[in-house]
């Protein structure tokens, strides 16, 4: 569904990703793993069109490399970005309404909002509160719900567990598992390899802007030396 | 007592005018970090549109007023498309210089195409007649101005809270890239900001010309400078701040006029800016400066 071919990503004069290729098939959960600075977020930024890049990004066999950010989102790619980036000066409900900005049918949009507020009861309780006043975990749920309001065909999740308490991390991953079970195609970027591999069908391990290893979750998970390194125990 | 009430009305009417213009500056600044110094020329565009209507012998006040507002709005949106879009993501200094450039070009067009001297606009005098409200002798213009500003504030608030584009504009003041990541077209957000800003300039133009009765190429310079000060005092980029700053400045000016003895009248501006300097020492970012993202950014 999403195919990345020889992708290089640039931040100003610096090349952060040096030509990587990978695939996210429909209905699968693919994970990009790796330490800080490996180029995972840069890769996400290149897929959404925010960062300057070379190489080819295909979505549904359509070359979207030349499309601006908005057009890619409109094609069905949605992102819960690193750092969550909820609109702090808007209420929870207004954040969700913006997430559903592409939904022309107001009734459908209202139903979607109700659905996600029900799925995340804590957000329902805080619906009129400014998003800036939410805790980190609540902001993460809001960022994911906002991304889902777009009714995407592929969901990009960038470090959904970063900076959150283990209990909240477990909750977020349960939710991602549920989305996967419902058939959502997911590209999951994570440092938390243990959690990510429990969910992912296939994973790519990035290091220094390149893909170092790839394989099914089982193979990677069974490689104890690799896992020790990934989980910071090595 | 009556005198005080009348001066309060004066202050409100000055303040309303500054607030209208300051809102126009703030709405563009909040989303693209650009201080649009060409905003004053939009006011002049409205004025010259009225001159043109006069030359065509179109005196219907409704047509003149709506025409002037539409002209200011249209030019504003055109400027965004032609001049500001190419520098949208450039350094703020580049945007500022572009705005000065646009301002100079427009002033020179007025100068060459019309006249360097003031041109009379008489079609709006009908807006101004003395009225008595509760024993107070007021000008109808002051009432119109106050009412218009109230309506504008209500309409703008509703727009920013209810419509998707309005929400996007509020969100864009914090994180424009994330707004684009929700699929909202950046071009539409910018165009809307300049459209609203242009309409506000057009409204301000109506009141300025109804009072002055003439338009010249530098018509907009002083009002926009005052509005800029209002924005700085209120907190640049904050829309409530722009309104508050506008009314504060109006009140200060009238207070100085009233309280200063005749022979010190020339000190008015110095004292007004002195007070503003003190406000800025107290709140360097302005009274209602927009919140800076301090949340757990990782």
Account of the protein in words:
The complex is a heterodimer of chains A (234) and B (298). Chain A is an alpha/beta fold. Chain A contains ten helices and ten strands. In chain A, strands 6-7-8-3-9-10 form a six-stranded mixed β-sheet, sandwiched between helices. The longest helix of chain A is centred in the last third of the chain and has 16 residues. With 298 residues, chain B is mostly helical. Chain B contains eleven helices and four strands, in the order ααααβββααααβααα. The chains are: A alpha/beta (234), B mainly alpha (298). Chains A and B meet through helix 2, helix 3 and helix 6 of A and helix 6 and helix 7 of B.
Layout of secondary structure:
The complex is a heterodimer of chains A (234) and B (298).
Chain A: E1 2-11, E2 14-24, E3 29-33, H1 40-48, E4 52-59, E5 62-63, H2 69-75, E6 77-80, H3 92-99, H4 106-119, H5 121-125, H6 136-148, E7 154-158, H7 166-181, E8 185-190, H8 193-199, E9 202-207, E10 210-216, H9 217-222, H10 224-230
Parallel strand pairs in A: 3-8, 3-9, 6-7, 7-8
Antiparallel strand pairs in A: 1-2, 1-4, 4-5, 9-10
Helix pairs in contact in A: 3-6
Chain B: H1 2-32, H2 39-55, H3 61-84, H4 92-113, E1 119-120, E2 130-133, E3 136-139, H5 140-162, H6 164-172, H7 176-180, H8 186-212, E4 214-215, H9 221-234, H10 239-259, H11 268-282
Antiparallel strand pairs in B: 1-4, 2-3
Helix pairs in contact in B: 1-5, 1-8, 1-9, 1-10, 2-3, 2-4, 2-8, 3-8, 5-6, 5-8, 6-8, 9-10, 10-11
The CATH superfamily title of chain A: P-loop containing nucleotide triphosphate hydrolases
How far is it from the N-terminal to the C-terminal residue of chain B, by CA?
Answer: 58 Å
What spatial order of strands do you see in the largest sheet of chain B? 1-4
Question: Strand portion of chain A, in percent?
Answer: 25-35%
The helical percent of chain B reads 55-70%
User: Unreliable stretches of chain B, pLDDT < 50, 5 or more residues?
Assistant: 294-298
Count every beta strand of chain A, where a strand is a DSSP E run of 2 or more residues: 10
Mean pLDDT of chain B: 90
Rg of chain B over CA atoms, rounded to whole Å, is 19 Å
Order of helices and strands of chain A: EEEHEEHEHHHHEHEHEEHH
Report the CATH architecture of chain A: 3-Layer(aba) Sandwich
Tally of individual helices of chain B: 11
Apparent shape of chain A: globular
Order of helices and strands of chain B: HHHHEEEHHHHEHHH
Largest sheet of chain B: 2 strands, antiparallel
- Which quaternary structure do these chains form? heterodimer
């Amino acid at each position: 569904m999403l195919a990345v071919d020889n992708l290089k990503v640039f931040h100003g004069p610096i090349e952060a990703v040096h030509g990587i290729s990978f695939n996210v098939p429909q209905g699968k959960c693919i994970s990009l793993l790796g330490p800080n600075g490996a180029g995972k977020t840069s890769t996400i930024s290149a897929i959404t069109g925010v960062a300057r890049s070379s190489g080819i990004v295909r979505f549904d066999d359509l070359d979207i490399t030349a499309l601006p950010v908005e057009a890619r989102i409109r094609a069905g790619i949605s992102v819960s970005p690193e750092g969550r980036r909820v609109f702090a000066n808007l209420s929870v409900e207004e954040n969700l309404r913006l997430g559903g900005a592409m939904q022309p049918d107001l009734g459908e949009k209202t139903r979607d909002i109700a659905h996600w507020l029900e799925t995340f009861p804590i957000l329902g309780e805080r619906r009129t509160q400014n998003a800036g006043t939410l805790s980190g975990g609540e902001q993460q749920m809001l960022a994911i719900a906002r991304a889902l309001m777009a009714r995407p065909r592929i969901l990009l999740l960038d470090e959904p567990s970063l900076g959150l308490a283990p209990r909240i991390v477990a909750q977020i991953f349960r939710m991602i598992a549920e989305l996967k079970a419902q058939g959502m195609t997911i590209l999951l970027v994570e440092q938390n390899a243990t959690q990510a591999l429990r969910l992912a069908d296939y994973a790519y391990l990035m290091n220094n802007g390149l893909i170092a290893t790839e394989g099914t979750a089982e193979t990677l998970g069974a490689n104890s030396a690799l896992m020790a390194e990934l989980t910071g125990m090595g | 007592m009556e005198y005080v009430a009348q001066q309060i009305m004066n202050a409100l009417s000055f303040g309303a005018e500054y607030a209208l213009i300051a809102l126009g500056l703030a709405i563009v600044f909040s989303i693209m970090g650009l201080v649009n110094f060409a905003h004053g020329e939009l006011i002049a565009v409205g004025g010259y549109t009225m001159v043109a209507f006069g030359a065509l012998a179109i005196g219907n006040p409704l047509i003149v007023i709506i025409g002037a507002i539409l002209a200011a709005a249209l030019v504003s949106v055109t400027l965004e498309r032609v001049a500001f879009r190419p520098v949208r993501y450039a350094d703020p200094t580049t945007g500022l210089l572009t705005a000065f450039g646009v301002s100079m070009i427009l002033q020179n067009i007025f100068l060459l195409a019309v006249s360097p001297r003031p041109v009379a606009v008489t079609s709006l005098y009908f807006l101004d007649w003395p009225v008595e409200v509760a024993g107070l002798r007021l000008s109808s213009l002051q009432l119109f101005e106050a009412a218009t500003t109230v309506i504008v504030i209500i309409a703008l608030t509703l727009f920013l809270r209810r419509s998707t584009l309005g929400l996007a504009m509020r969100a864009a003041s914090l994180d424009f890239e994330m707004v684009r990541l929700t699929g909202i077209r950046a071009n539409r957000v910018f165009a809307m900001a300049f459209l609203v800003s242009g309409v506000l300039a057009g409204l301000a133009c109506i009141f300025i010309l109804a009072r002055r009765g003439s338009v010249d190429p530098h018509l907009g310079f002083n009002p926009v400078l005052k509005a800029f000060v209002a924005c700085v005092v209120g907190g640049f980029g904050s829309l409530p701040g722009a309104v508050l700053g506008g009314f504060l400045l109006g009140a200060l000016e009238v207070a100085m006029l009233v309280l200063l003895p005749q022979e010190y009248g020339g000190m008015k501006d110095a004292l007004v800016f002195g007070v503003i300097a003190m406000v800025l020492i107290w709140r360097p970012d302005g009274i209602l400066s927009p919140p800076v993202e301090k949340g757990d950014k990782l």
